[in-house]
Design brief:
Layout lengths: L9 E2 L8 E2 L9 E3 L4 E4 L2 E4 L5 E2 L2 H5 L5 E3 L24 H10 L1 H4 L12 H22 L13 E3 L8 E3 L8 E3 L4 E4 L2 E4 L4 E3 L2 H5 L5 E3 L10
Antiparallel strand pairs: 1-2, 3-7, 4-5, 5-6, 8-9, 10-14, 11-12, 12-13
Length: 226
């Protein structure tokens, strides 16, 4: 044994102690320590060995150890809490499941059943959407077919655009052939005008003389041929 080894200052490695000691002065019970690891969760600090806890970390470190023994320079092997094994979900055989589904009124009607599982998503969606699809097909069958109208490009027609009302032929129609008001007329407190160009007058004759503010194609109904 080396000279002075018994009087050499050593630091205890037990959790919660860390005191200085010598081999000559290390009686049983001189070390007070925690035998298990600390546990931290949601701001709470707890010693898993003695269940002592605190929110403040400084106060947590001052919690005295719950075990006594001798000081040691060997780091203790701490036992970790045993992991909690999840419980296995009970399983049933396919034959038994089919039998119970056959006796379940919800399963027979095609509804979702938490006890016996649901139908495949495709089948369920088809079952739920079948009445809607049938109703849509019924509406489409009742709708009158769109009638195609052949217009003679040389036939005179009356333009329906507001502020135009001119007679035109389709062969002469183009993107700037018509001068009109796209907005609705406005009549308020004896004022008459167009919302599109924000022009208002008092007399109706003046209202009729307000020049159109937009150019475009002549538009008319085939039934209004001159």
């Amino acid at each position: 044994m080396e000279v002075g080894s018994e009087t050499k200052k050593l630091q205890c490695q037990r959790i919660g102690c860390n005191a200085m000691f010598t081999d000559a002065d290390n009686p049983q019970g001189s070390c007070q320590f925690h035998a298990s690891v600390p546990f931290f969760h949601d701001g709470m600090k707890e010693w898993s060995c003695c269940k002592q806890r605190s929110h403040d970390f400084s106060l947590f470190l001052e919690i005295p150890g719950c075990k006594t023994g001798k000081h040691t320079t060997e780091k203790p092997v701490l036992a970790k809490p045993a992991p909690k094994h999840p419980l296995a979900a009970p399983t049933s055989s396919p034959d038994a499941n089919a039998a119970t589904k056959g006796s379940c009124s919800r399963c027979r009607q095609g509804f979702f059943c938490s006890d016996h599982g649901s139908q495949p998503k495709e089948q369920t969606r088809q079952t739920l959407n079948t009445p809607v699809q049938a109703e849509e097909e019924k509406i489409e069958s009742l709708a009158p077919p769109i009638k195609k109208v052949v217009i003679d490009i040389n036939q005179p027609q009356v333009c329906n655009n507001k502020g135009c009302g001119k007679t035109f032929k389709e062969r002469d129609n183009h993107e700037t052939a018509c001068s009109y008001h796209p907005g609705p007329p406005v009549f308020h407190d004896r004022l008459k005008g167009w919302k599109c160009c924000d022009v208002h007058v008092n007399e109706f004759d003046e209202f009729m003389e307000i020049p159109p503010c937009t150019k475009g194609w002549h538009i008319s109904s085939p039934n209004q041929a001159v």
